[in-house]
Design goal:
Layout lengths: L6 H11 L4 H10 L5 H4 L3 E9 L10 E4 L5 E3 L5 E7 L3 E5 L6 E4 L6 E5 L1
Parallel strand pairs: 1-7
Antiparallel strand pairs: 1-4, 2-3, 2-5, 5-6
Length: 116
């Protein structure tokens, strides 16, 4: 017969060893519950854009990131990017040797031309 671990008991033992009360352990599950389906499903839109320098030359490999998230990519050889982003939010554009820019997303706008 395989050894089975009762994770509820193991978790309680860990909490007790850390000096956390039984009441705190009882409420632990409610504090760490995953967000509801409605909260987890943000409305997203696909945007595209092009990043150039002041001379109109494409910025290859610029970091394009949705601020406060892990959604991002780098621009291609022509300075182009495309991302699925929340309808509202902020894009952070960064590249070595340039000042990081923040671009506020405008609801309904799908195409962005960014000059660094």
């Amino acid at each position: 017969m395989k050894n089975k671990v009762n994770f509820k008991i193991a978790g309680f033992a860990i909490f007790m060893s850390l000096g956390i009360s039984h009441e705190a352990y009882a409420n632990w599950g409610t504090a760490l519950e995953a967000p509801s389906v409605m909260e987890a499903q943000q409305s997203t839109v696909k945007i595209k854009g092009n990043i150039t320098d002041v001379n109109g030359e494409p910025i290859i490999g610029a970091n394009v990131l949705v601020k406060g998230s892990t959604v991002g990519m780098i621009s291609d050889i022509d300075g182009n990017f495309s991302l699925d982003v929340p309808e509202t939010g902020v894009l952070q554009i960064s590249y070595i040797g340039y000042i990081t820019q923040e671009i506020k997303l405008i609801p309904g706008r799908k195409d962005y031309k960014i000059r660094c």
